[in-house]
# Entry
Amino acid sequence: MKLKRTLTGLTLKAGVLAALLLSSCDKGFEEMNKNPNAYVEPVIPAVFSAAIMRHAGVGDGNTLYPNSKQAGSLIQYFSSLNAFQWTGVKYLYQGKADYNNGLWNTAFSTELKEVQQILDLTKGKTDMVNQYNIARILRVDILHRVTDLYGDMPYTEAGRALDGIFKPKYDKQADIYADMLKELEEASKALDPAKPSYGAADFVYNGAPAKWKLFANSLMLRLGMRMTKANPTLAETWVKKAIAGGVMTSNADNAKVPHTSASGTNWNWNSRQMQTVEGNPASAAGLGFSKLNEALINRLKAKNDPRLPFYSTLWQGNINIANLPAESTHAKAKGLPGGFDYTSIATAIPGWNANMQRDYSEMNQHTIAHLEAPTHYQSYAEVEFLLAEAALRGWGPGTAKEHFDKAVTASITSATLYPNYALVIPNPTAAAASYLAANPYTGGTTAQQMEQIHSEMWVALFGYMNNIESFSNWRRTGYPVLVPVNYPGNETGGIIQRRLRYPAAEQSINTENYNQAVANQGPDNFLTRIWWDK
# Structure
């Protein structure tokens, strides 16, 4: 299974996914473990590429279910009348187990294993200092999303099956956060632009250590701010460290993975979910299962937000999603209320009939949900919103307004990173200026300013499909203020859930450690709050 270093760009991407996302790779991994020196040069870049793409969800829709059908629905980006698939909008635990378990299963069974292979092969090698430390940063980005959804989880013993650890202990989330922040700090400081890196095998930054340093510190800012409820003093310490170390300063710094629509192995699979119904083209289904929630659409309309036609569109007739700005105007846009099914929706919308579904907005498949739309791990816009909060708290330079304006501008102008943006936002820079003039940062009490910052951040994160991050930020801040639903038979009593359940397999396979985690954290249900959410 030799993969030559001369493979570059999309050719490398296709080759990596064909070779490494399939079980045919097992022999290569076994040989690598028997003789670590045999394939170090060719295998490490290939394994890293596979980990990058898998972390973006490519080739594995199950990884993305918690992002879209759970977090995206809980945070009221999406709504659906289908109770079986889009369970998050109704606080249900049913349907496919992957909707709850997908991220956990893929992170621990494949992503982490790939990253651990790299760490084991590069640790202590001075000529591979960048490969080692970039892998440390990627490991944090993989695992923080998992702990943010579930809470306590395997961490120090995770990914160590090759060492004979098949039933890893669960670490407490406070300890996990402490180590993740330490890893980011050490890795960012150790990166050396003068030494080799992954080159073209790095689909995020093309092997640029300086960019990975910015990403590491920006992640540190995210995780530091996450602790404001649980440990404000520690949060302040890490936020200040992140800012001092240097964070993203433009959209050119966004941590993102490019995609092409030429092959399913290179698609944006977040977009694929928005374009399919269980693997069938949406056009064949007549109407998509997922609609945009009225909470999102109503805000975009109320603010005359230029991102509305970039984010959403309507159906033409009963066949194809529209590719015309006229079908995405503010006047025509309409969000679907959450918490209803095909029968009960008539109680909210009198005279409802199935043909009315086409009148409700969906994601724009020609822009934000295009198969070539980039997958974002983290954006510059998010960083500026967090810097606005840091300034408000007195933890960072500048004013909250300055960073707020930069954040909104970054969000709107990042449309240029997506296909066909000019169809709906011909001049993003001018659109951002007009939006801020009409919707200025108004100041006020701390609570009022927090609401302004994080309600806008909620709108912005939708544009990057960072639904898990948006769900985490909402749990931490309480903004935007969301109105819960009370669908019959829901498992929370009409309260927006705070976490996902552990996979059922953990109870039967890793029973002792699972039981200890439940004893430490609380009942394994939707309402138990994880450490940083208490």
